[in-house]
Amino acid sequence: MFGRRKKSSGLPDETEGGFVADETPDISEDSASEDDAAPGGLDPDQGPFDLGELDEERDALAETRLDLGSVLVPLPAGGQLQVEMTQAGAPQAVHVVTQYGRITIAAYAAPKSPGQWREVAADLAESLRNDKSDVSIETGPWGRELLGVTANADLRFIGVDGYRWMVRCVLAGPAGNVNNDSPLVKIARDVLSQTVVDRGTDPHPVRTPLPVVLPAALTAQLAAAQQQQAEQAARSNAQPPPASPAPVGPTEGPRRGSSGSAMQQLGG
User: Fold this and answer.
1) Who's near 8: CB < 8 A, 6+ residues apart?
2) What is the dihedral of CA 47, 52, 58, 60, to 10 degrees?
3) Burial of 218 (0-12, 13-18, 19+ CB in 10 A)
């Protein structure tokens, strides 16, 4: 089974297994339960994993995942990748579009002690309420999950605290597509459970997104798509279209045993 932890991870006791179930008090009046820790404890073979915990080498892990530098993410068959760039032209996020909606997984710097996801979720909830969105809290496999119903899409935020990192998975889809029993949520939880985080050794302020590095093949495909757009604009004697997440799919992604995917970052 790929993604199996070493028998001894060498991490402090409070982060055994690379992540901690959120057992802090509820962050809002919309909480789903009085105890939002993951029910029944966490499976030691369930990720997200820290790269340093695993027996497999990075190259072997990348055979079944999309290697984005700070995260290695399994992809679903038939998904379309979208790359979001900064104004400086650097990759900022990689989204995977499925028939049910879009998913993004990204890693952030965090303190050694857990608890960052609780704080981020509280900030996200406040931001969504300020935008007049309906907000609620549910309990998922890793603890609290934040739901927001906006004018444009339904959103679900899933967070997991690790040792000096936090992973956030954001799902966006049409009304009803991020409900707890929806296919999009099943896919997202599946991929999150096999995601691998490479925190690296460089210092980063807490909450800073860890760097996204595109694979060479994806970089070449993105450059070709951008060149094609520029040529089409020149032929039509029109200005180039405004910057937007560039589709670079469809792709079936690396081989894996079951479906999964990756999603958009909002707020935080």
Assistant:
1) none
2) -60
3) buried
Distant-in-sequence, close-in-space partners of 124: CB < 8 Å, separation ≥ 6: 146, 148, 157, 266, 267, 268
**Residue 215: partners with Cβ closer than 8 Å, 6 or more residues away:** 66, 67, 68
Whole-number Å distance between alpha carbons of 46 and 90 = 32
Location of structure tokens 């001894």: 8
Phi, psi of 128, deg, nearest 5: -65, -40
Is the overall model pTM greater than 0.70, yes or no? yes
Residue type for 262, please? A
CA–CA separation, 230 and 221 (whole Å): 14
Q: Are the C-beta atoms of 61 and 150 separated by less than 8 Å?
A: no
Pairing state of beta strands 91-97 and 102-109? Answer: antiparallel
Residue 254: Cβ within 10 Å count: 16
| Single-letter code of the amino acid located at 139 | T
Each of the 268 residues of the chain gets a pLDDT tens digit; together they read 444 555 444 444 333 333 333 333 344 444 444 344 444 455 667 899 999 989 899 999 999 999 999 999 998 777 888 888 888 888 888 998 999 999 999 999 999 988 999 999 999 999 999 999 999 999 999 999 999 999 999 999 999 999 999 999 999 999 999 999 999 999 999 999 999 999 998 999 999 999 999 988 888 888 888 888 888 888 886 556 666 565 565 444 444 433 333 333 333 4
